[in-house]
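Q: Predict the assembly, please.
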Amino acid sequence: MSHTPPISRRALLGLLGVTAGATGLAACTPSGSPSGPTSTAPLAGDGDVTMWFWSGAIDTAIAEAVAQELDGVTVTLEEIGGADYPTKLQTVISGGAGIPDIAGVKGGVFGGDIAQYFPNEDRFHDLLEFGAAEVESNYVSWKWQQCISPDGKMIGFPMDIGPTALMYRADIADDAGLASDAAGVSVETAEWEGFFAWGEELQAANSEVRLLSNIGLVFNLALGQASELFFTTDNTYIGDGEAVRRAWDLAVAAKTRGLSADVGDFTPEWSAALAAGTVVAFPGASWLASGLKSNAPDTEGAWQLAPTPSGAANLGGSFLTVTADSTDPQAAFDVIRLLQSPENQAEAFRTQSLFPSSPGAHELLRDGAEDPFFAGQNTMEVFAASAASKKAAYVSPYDPSVLPALQTELLNVQNSDKDPEAAWTDAQETITRTLQQAGVL
Amino acid sequence: MVATPSSAAADRSTQFGRRLRRLAPLYLAVSPFYIVFACFGAFPLVFSLWLSVNRWDGIGDMEFIGLRNFALLLQDPVFFQSIATTVRIFVMATVPMLALALFIAVLLNSKVKFISAYRISYFVPSITSLVSIAIIFGSIFGNTFGVMNALLRSIGVDEVPWLTSPLGIQFTIAVMMIWQYTGYNAILYLAGLQTISPELYEAATMDGANSRQSFFHVTIPQLRPVILFTVVMSTIGGLQLFTQPQVLVGNQGGTERGGLTMSLYLYNQAFVNNNFGYAAAIGWALVAIVLFFSILNYRLGRSGDAEE
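A: Predicted assembly structure:
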């Protein structure tokens, strides 16, 4: 028989009352306390650093080793599951409680997720105050600039990136009697125009295949290689300007020239087309390679890599931030700095396939990066060159809400044969409304 | 003795204190529900009303903008499109679903072997993960490699762009809902059927009613409360449709926003665009629409009463 000590009814009720009251108060406080001033003086920190990240964002073994290395610092790693990580982070920051010292921030397509925090940059520490500038040369400059708000505050620190390349089925190109090896294809597809022409020849020789899976990725890559996107640094809308229009026209050209298989990325149709070998070229980020490998393992050795037509772009990647509520921001920054050192980024690539934002890490990984899936080509060389040559572009807080309007209209052009001019006008009208709703216009 | 006003007030307050002390344990005992409701029901409700007259990016300061969100909402063609989309999917799904559920319930009510196995297997879809269902339906209705179009090709019919045309997207979502919730509604109808007294059927047979007549003149009228319940529940569920389109065609609703339901649009505004105020305004518009349909259902149910 178990022998539990009796709990008095009064104590139990008291406890209930207290917890109920506490939950009531905590949950019903709408916007939390303004947290800006809480960390004005650089207090002698307590050395306790909590870190939020989503599954697969960091290598926990490296993070633990980093904590061991730093004297007087203890790191608590909290893996926050699920696709709604950004919402959870936003919730604690807005609620003003339970905020971690270090928070990972996902990059979004063009790095817009860190930019979405620019209007509330006072909720984060400026990492330049803790010595970030000393390590600036360790990272590719466009990524570094994405961390810095228009006011010059560095609210994020570079983690991984997603440099792009052109992945293609060399065997299919070879069967069609076209240039198929990386050196030859690089020349043919140096510009989008050449790439499309190469595809047309390929499709003429083999009517079963299409050059591309869809036209949306042409838009994303073509825009990603531009030096300006949707806004200027003073948040003036330029998304109806030259850069966006060029990317749009290239995507439309891929459709009108019949080069698209019209399947959405990572849909069941996409996997099937990939496995069946009906799509030849996949211009995409480094992480797409693992998608190709897992969806079409039988095609190992049939693939090769060439540079992205018309220049490097980047899709995805992430950042680490130190929140304004951190009780020891210096210790938090020291953890980030060590965790993202070139050596540790290289290790995280080996264990978690997180592509480093540090050229030093690329150098460490270059030897032995020959990948049998890409016929023994050194993939690190291709992606490192891509990462090094990408142009910097200002990403605004509103990019993530502007981009979908254009992507949706391109989908209409692709799937419903909508007139491209009408689609462009509709996209711009949707964007105007979205910006009105957000109070930008 | 003349009681001065102040002493009367004191009397009342001590009386009140005594009452409170006597009733406190009772209030405390029922308090958990009210506290939870206050935090997770009433507070969000009031807060979202406040949000709808503000502009808020989810973190920074709120900016009071009066009814501007609602004014923008009335000029927003995407919102009106999302209403039409939601209602279309709702009709495409609910009508066949409830008819089919009633048919299945009548079958499940008969005396056949392994009846429990049938009942369970019809119920299983409603407790299956929505996300995995959506992924499987995504492969079934794929344009080139999907089973559905393979079937159509084999009987010489043209392929249908299920997931790349608005009507196809809406149809696929409706089929998904029918597959998932028919069994659940059939179980509800079955419970209703089992409460109908056999004597009613005997009497109908005595009066010379055939099985079709006794279905329409005995079964349906007796089941009316259950039918009304399922219609109301399907309405509320159907108008809040969210997960199926999101997993099937993504946050933006796919081609021509064919799968962009009201809830999905609300989600986009809040969690993609960080326009929490505007999203709250959509939420309240959604409340008004659900309320309208619920009253409509209720009226239709009552007008049936009057006929009898």
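The radius of gyration of chain A is 25 Å. Residues 1-42 of chain A have pLDDT under 50 and may be disordered.
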